[in-house]
Amino acid sequence: MKTIRPSRARVAAVGVAATGALFLAGCGAANESGSGSTGSSGSATAAVSGTISGAGASTQQAATQAWVAGFNGANPDATINYDPSGSGAGRTQFIAGGVDWAGSDAYIKGDELTKANERCGGSIVEVPVYVSPIAVVYNLQGVDNLQLSPSTLAKIFDKKITTWNDPAIAADNPGVALPATPITTVNRSDKSGTTQNFADYLKGAAAADWSYEVSDTWPVQGGEAAQGTSGLVGAVKAGQGTIGYADESQAQGLGQVKIKVGDAYVAPTAEGAAKILEASQRVSDGGTNAFAFKLARNTTDSTAYPITLASYAIACTKYQDPAKAALVKSYLGYVVSAEGQQAAQKAAGSAPLSDALRQQITPAIEAIGSVA
Amino acid sequence: MSAPTTTSPPETAAPAKPVRQLGDRIFAGSATAAGVLILVVLAGVAAFLIVQAIPAFIAPSADLPGGRNIFLYIGPLIFGTLLSAVIALVIATPLGVSVALFITHYAPRRLAQGLGYVIDLLAAVPSIVYGLWGVAVLAPASLGFMTWLNTYLGWLPFFAGPVSATGRTMFVVGVTLAVMILPIITAVSREVFLQTPKLHEEAALALGATRWEMIRMAVLPFGRSGIISGAMLGLGRALGETMAVAIILSGSGIITFNLISSANPSSIAANIALQFPDSTGVAVNVLIASGLVLFVITLLVNSLARWIINRRSEFSGAN
């Protein structure tokens, strides 16, 4: 992407236009009113323009706001809309052709993949754009450094272990005086990609102790249920003997469980989360440009943190409209760039993609083009 | 009351057509249009709910959320909705009537006026604010009381425990809803109590009744229909309350009378608010089907209230 040295007058115009574009983006996906940012600096040749709309995972919302703001800085004539309607809704709308790209907390597979390829008239592009560690948070007086193995964790959340001084917990925490407080598990009461990824971890790392199907709704009845990440964190904070799961960036001020990976106990970190993607196997059902990863939940690599959420952007390799293709390509290119990933880290506390992974997935984004 | 209640001028008995001016016709037309519009809107809402709910009822259970029968899914929600509303009503009705009696018959006039304003102000607070208050203040504050209930009244199924660690329970939801519907019940009761014929009250006092006996003999019988309609209005609000319940309640799909544990049945409105944003396909239809059920319940409650009021009005003591 070429940068242009703007004149003073143009700087002002860009500022106005960027504000306009931001405002439009803030209005949500319902706003289809084209390039409302009345291009006063239209002479830019490298910058792309037009409007694209995406929909999907609400986990990406905060990061998307940062991406759109950053992208508009360089491309003031572009309007990017993102409707955080949920992963499933995003994929459905993408398949139906209603949006140009979708955000999804789970990679697209099976029937949906076939339909998505059909919609694209070829094949899809799928890249991880938002990776974030999920912390297992707890509130237990007198215990500052809790360690749990996957099996114990699954039993706790399945309500098989009900007090904190259970022998299984004690075995993971030698020398720690555990109180006899009853355990209150806290889960999300709304549908959530965090729930889905946490359940997927329990299923992948402790299949023997977790018999439920993985979905975005919490499967165990009768736990403490709270709305949204903030509600969950609030409930964990409010109670004594509570344990829950939340995006690591939102989990400050609470105890974070160290999870047993291999032989060591690992705390959630951005590096560990980025690492797990490298350690994971790629699912190549979607073709050469689909970088979906079956996250190695049961990895033994203690530098990786397996309770990680990987959220994808799903787009087409070919678009009818060349301008649209260029805009999608340019936007996704920015999203996975070091700059874009840092913006997301700042805004949403996500883990930036590693350089190795970026090199891997960049050709997929480069492959986006128009039919002609 | 089966007799026709509205009596328009008998047209057969009036052969001479009344003079109709343009203004009359415009007014009559617009009034009719407004009346019809209400029916159209109601019919439109009902039609939307029914059409959108049908796919949920005919879809195989495996496709539904949780892979369960739709009635197993909606059942606990109906139960939770009714339970929370009933708790609210049980708390708020006696309280609201007492407040209304205090304002109308006990308080000095100046205090009564101020108190009336404050009560009306309570009704103007948005429900989400009550929700935040419930989860941030009431829930932690009521932990001690709930533990006490569990310790001394634990033999009742309502307080069987184990006590929730956070206080986000059905009990707290009920209390919050009670605070929310209190102003409605109070305002309606107050208006009705104020209309008690002075002659009735003075007659009772003249016969040697104390003030409490006077209220029991003259005011309460007269105001009974007002109390009931106020309670039913409150019930309607409690049934449909969404955000406060969604924020406060720790809900899951179970049926239990236990009011103080962290396992509670969610309510229909709260469940829709929580699940709708990320739902697709038939899951949306299921949520709309639950909305249809709530619509029917609300309609039934209102009809019941109407029926009770009509039946009681003959014995209100006013005639």
From TrEMBL, chain A:
The keyword rRNA-binding does not apply. InterPro entries: ABC_phos-bd_PstS, PBP_domain, Phosphate-bind_PstS. It holds the Pfam family PBP_like_2. Gene3D superfamilies: Periplasmic binding protein-like II. Keywords: Phosphate transport, Signal, Transport. Residues 1-29 form the signal peptide. Residues 42-339 form the PBP domain. Belongs to the PstS family. NCBIfam families: 3a0107s03 (TIGR00975). PANTHER family: PHOSPHATE-BINDING PROTEIN PSTS. This is Phosphate-binding protein. The gene is pstS.
From TrEMBL, chain B:
Residues 78-305 form the ABC transmembrane type-1 domain. It is a multi-pass membrane protein. The keyword Transmembrane helix applies. Pfam families: BPD_transp_1 (PF00528). Its main location: membrane. It is found in: Cell membrane. InterPro entries: MetI-like, MetI-like_sf, Phosphate_PstC, Phosphate_Transport_Permease. Keywords: Cell membrane, Membrane, Phosphate transport, Transmembrane, Transmembrane helix, Transport. CDD domains: TM_PBP2. It comes from the Bacteria. Coiled coil: none annotated. The chain crosses the membrane at residues 26-58, 70-103, 115-133, 139-159, 171-194, 214-235, 242-262, 282-305. Part of the binding-protein-dependent transport system for phosphate; probably responsible for the translocation of the substrate across the membrane. Belongs to the binding-protein-dependent transport system permease family. CysTW subfamily. This is Phosphate transport system permease protein.
